[in-house]
């Protein structure tokens, strides 16, 4: 899946470049000599650098990633990515399939640990603490950096037990009443309480897709994390459910740092304050959402948001 | 003409028919370049012709070969002298056998007289004629079939659909073989069991507490009244099965959990095939392992601890059977654990669960129906297992729950009842079929329950 996506994007770009440069030769045969422009060389030939353009810094950084590289065996999936993630804001990671945005997201709570061949270098810190240091327990980290997945994945348990799962394993509630309270608050904040309050003991898998995703969000915030990672949380949902989740993100961003991976540029424009554009494992451009969508600095970013890539 | 020659000839004709049908279809549209005008690919017209050449001819041949012996014998008997025709059925059968043996040049019981020789000659002549008639008929039908199919070839003939329908029937026939065989086995066991229940009341068999299947051969024989209470056998089976499951379930389940969740890919790549080898060891090998190694060991250990252990104990048989079943339990549990979507695992890990919390609180509950289904299948395997218990569990039909005593199982008794020379009208022999029937019903129920649990569980995640 990854490779065809990449090369397609490259080819599109390589073919378009010459016509941009020489517009006054409309009937000229398609330039065969586009070949040396092809593949990765092209970026350099066009005078575009590998450096990230825009501003990777933000005012109040909560998570700081510097020179992060990820290898899956031989495959260099992420190359030298540096990025700040600020508190109380939403940052969207966009880019064509296979560009490494989900991989980067999974670095932030060390979910890549479960993949045997994955190797992460560089540094990522959470609130000043290196999350890849030996002293840090990934289990404790994941309680602080929650994650919502692409496909709603409620456990095959009741709605109540789904939300109560995290507080129970972390011992967040002293007694049943406190647990009830956490479950209700979490469901309420996820905007699901009204719909399910009379059937908390029914299985979570019986809900609709959008409800399931909100249940997963409720389950995540029940652990009281500081950062929420969302990996294409709306890609399996219809527009109405998507709108509800987006409203929810807006609300949640007042308390949490939210990182969202999305394929929908409209969604990125609607929910995020900053946008990071990934391409072939590199972080190409980071900037405020308005700037990225109105005035992208990098050619690749422009091509992507205008629909020429991906 | 021999039947094999005939079949080879038919195969040759079918090949020719294939070629002719294919080339006719191409000729009709004017060559390969126009083959798009044909409804089907040219090869299908070839198969169509070949099928018409082969199938009717084979059907006729089958009927003929089945009917031939009866017809020939009837004709030979018809030609016998009046006195011989009026013999009793048994004697006539003997005479016919003699004629057949004489015709084939085998040994004949009694003396060969002229009439017998004449009948044998007649038999040989009739068989010869029959063979030639068959050959002519079959080859004629094959030719006619191929010809009629060949003439019917048109560009718009739906050859592919017809050939595919023939293939479909072939597949149906193949799949019904297993089903029909099962039905046949069930019926044969059922009828023999019914004969047994005419001699021994059903309730006595099912609820009797005493198993001693020796019946008197002579009326004045002493001490062999025969009693057919099957409860000790089922109790023994149950005892050994329980011991086996006590070994297999924990060990198998823990193996599966380790392999599915904790082991590195390298360990898994080595351990899984090894487990499968364990599953591939013939049960008879487990049997003498149980009888020669485990049973004496159990006995010695028991003696050291001051427990009286029989030299053939339920414990030894159960332990070895449990080891035999470990791969079954572990591989079915492994499948069930693997079938839990990895999104569940990610979801639990993403909430900050440890691996063991993920396993015990999310994965195992989700996989539980599949695991239970697998265990039920393992139980039915344990109940039906024979060789280990034959060698290690003994023959004494004790009604006991003490694992250190010798017990016997249903399968062991079936084996002992049917080994050696048997008369098929005594209750002793027929008891084996009654036991087999009950065993069959039991394992069938377990399998049905087990498979339906497994299936229900599969649907949940697909």
Topology:
The complex is a heterodimer of chains A (310) and B (462).
Chain A: H1 2-21, H2 41-45, E1 53-54, E2 61-72, E3 75-86, E4 90-94, H3 101-107, E5 118-126, E6 129-130, H4 138-144, E7 145-148, H5 159-170, H6 176-189, H7 193-196, H8 209-221, E8 227-231, H9 239-252, E9 257-261, H10 265-271, E10 274-279, E11 282-288, H11 289-294, H12 299-305
Parallel strand pairs in A: 1-11, 4-9, 4-10, 7-8, 8-9
Antiparallel strand pairs in A: 2-3, 2-5, 5-6, 10-11
Helix pairs in contact in A: 5-6, 5-8, 6-8, 8-9
Chain B: H1 3-29, H2 42-78, H3 82-85, H4 89-104, H5 114-152, H6 159-199, H7 202-207, E1 211-212, E2 227-228, H8 231-262, H9 265-280, H10 283-304, H11 314-339, H12 342-350, H13 355-384, H14 387-392, H15 410-418, H16 427-461
Describe this structure in words.
- The complex is a heterodimer of chains A (about 300) and B (about 450).
- In chain A, strand 8, helix 9 and strand 9 (about 255-260) form a beta-alpha-beta unit.
- With about 300 residues, chain A is α/β, with parallel strands linked by helices.
- Chain A is built from twelve helices and eleven strands.
- The longest helix of chain A is centred in the first third of the chain and has 20 residues, at about 1-20.
- Chain A is globular, with a radius of gyration of 21 Å.
- Chain A has helices at about 1-20, 40-45, 100-105, 140-145, 160-170, 175-190, 195, 210-220, 240-250, 265-270, 290-295, 300-305; strands at about 55, 60-70, 75-85, 90-95, 120-125, 130, 145-150, 225-230, 255-260, 275-280, 280-290.
- Mean pLDDT of chain A is about 80; it is low at about 1-45.
- Chain B is mostly helical.
- Chain B has two domains: about 5-155, no CATH class; about 225-460, MetI-like (MetI-like fold, Orthogonal Bundle), CATH 1.10.3720.10.
- Chain B has 16 helices and two strands.
- A two-stranded antiparallel sheet of chain B has the order 1-2.
- The two termini of chain B are about 60 Å apart.
- The interface of A and B includes residues 141, 154, 156 and 166 of A.
């Amino acid at each position: 899946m990854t490779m065809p996506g990449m090369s397609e994007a490259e080819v599109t770009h390589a073919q378009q470049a010459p016509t941009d440069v020489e517009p006054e030769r409309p009937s000229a045969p398609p330039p065969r000599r586009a070949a040396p422009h092809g593949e990765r060389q092209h970026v350099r030939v066009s005078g575009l650098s590998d450096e990230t353009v825009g501003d990777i810094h933000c005012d109040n950084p909560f998570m700081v990633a510097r020179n992060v590289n990820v290898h899956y065996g031989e495959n260099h999936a992420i190359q030298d990515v540096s990025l700040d993630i600020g508190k109380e804001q939403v940052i969207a990671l966009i880019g064509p399939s296979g560009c490494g945005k989900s991989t980067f997201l999974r670095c932030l709570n060390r979910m890549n640990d479960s993949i045997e061949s994955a190797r992460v270098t560089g540094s990522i810190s959470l609130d000043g603490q290196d999350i890849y240091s030996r002293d840090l327990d990934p289990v404790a980290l994941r309680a602080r950096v929650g994650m919502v997945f692409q496909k709603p994945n409620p456990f095959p348990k009741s709605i109540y037990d789904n939300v109560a799962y995290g507080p129970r394993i972390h011992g967040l509630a002293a007694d049943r009443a406190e647990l009830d309270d956490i479950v209700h608050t979490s469901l309420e904040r996820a905007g699901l309480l009204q719909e399910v309050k009379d059937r908390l003991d029914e299985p979570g898998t019986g809900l609709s897709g959008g409800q399931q995703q909100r249940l997963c969000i409720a389950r995540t915030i029940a652990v009281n994390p500081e950062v929420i990672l969302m990996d294409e949380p709306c890609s399996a949902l219809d527009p109405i459910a998507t709108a509800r989740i987006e409203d929810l993100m807006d609300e949640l961003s007042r308390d949490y740092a939210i990182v969202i991976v999305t394929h929908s540029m409209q969604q990125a424009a609607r929910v995020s304050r900053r946008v990071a554009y990934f391409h072939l494992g590199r972080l190409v451009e980071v900037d405020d959402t308005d700037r990225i969508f109105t005035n992208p600095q990098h050619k690749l970013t422009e091509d992507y948001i205008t629909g020429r890539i991906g | 003409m021999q039947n094999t020659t005939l079949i080879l000839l038919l195969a040759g004709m079918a090949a020719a028919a294939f070629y002719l049908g294919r080339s006719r279809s191409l000729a009709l549209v004017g060559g390969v370049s126009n083959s798009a005008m044909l409804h089907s690919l040219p090869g299908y017209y070839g198969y169509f012709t070949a099928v018409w050449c082969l199938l009717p001819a084979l059907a006729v041949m089958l009927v003929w070969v089945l009917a031939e012996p009866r017809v020939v014998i009837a004709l030979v008997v018809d030609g016998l002298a009046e006195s011989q025709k009026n013999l009793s059925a048994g004697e006539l059968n003997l005479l016919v056998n003699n004629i057949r043996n004489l015709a084939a040049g085998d040994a004949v019981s009694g003396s060969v007289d002229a009439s017998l020789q004449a009948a044998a000659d007649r038999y040989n002549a009739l068989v010869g004629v029959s063979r030639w008639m068959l050959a002519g008929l079959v080859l004629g039908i094959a030719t006619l079939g191929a010809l009629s199919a060949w003439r019917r070839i048109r560009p718009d003939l739906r050859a592919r659909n017809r050939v595919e329908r023939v293939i479909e029937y072939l597949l149906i026939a193949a799949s019904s073989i297993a089903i029909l065989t099962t039905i046949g086995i069930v019926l044969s066991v059922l009828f023999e069991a019914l004969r047994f229940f005419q001699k021994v009341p059903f309730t006595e068999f099912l609820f009797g507490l005493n198993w001693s299947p020796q019946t008197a051969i002579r009326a004045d024989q002493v001490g062999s009244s025969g009693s057919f209470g099957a409860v000790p056998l089922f109790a023994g089976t149950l005892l050994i099965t329980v011991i086996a499951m006590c070994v297999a379930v924990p060990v198998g389940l823990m193996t599966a959990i380790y392999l599915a969740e904790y082991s590195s890919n390298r360990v898994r790549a080595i351990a899984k095939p090894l487990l499968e080898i364990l599953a591939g060891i013939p049960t008879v090998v487990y049997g003498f392992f149980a009888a020669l190694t485990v049973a004496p060991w159990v006995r010695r250990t028991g003696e050291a601890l001051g427990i009286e252990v029989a030299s053939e104990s339920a414990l030894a048989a159960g332990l070895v059977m449990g080891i035999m079943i470990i791969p079954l339990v572990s591989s079915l549990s492994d499948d069930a654990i693997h079938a839990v979507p990895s999104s569940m695992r990610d979801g639990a890990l993403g909430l900050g669960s440890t691996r063991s919390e993920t396993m015990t609180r999310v994965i195992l509950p989700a996989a539980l129906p599949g695991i239970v289904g697998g265990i039920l299948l393992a139980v039915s395997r344990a109940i039906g297992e024979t060789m280990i218990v034959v060698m290690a569990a003994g023959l004494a039909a004790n009604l006991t729950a003490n694992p250190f005593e010798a017990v016997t199982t249903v399968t062991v008794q079936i084996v002992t009842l049917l080994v050696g020379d048997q008369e098929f009208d005594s209750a002793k022999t027929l008891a084996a079929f009654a036991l087999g029937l009950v065993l069959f019903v039991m394992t069938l129920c377990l399998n049905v329950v087990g498979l339906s649990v497994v299936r229900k569980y599969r649907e949940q995640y697909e």
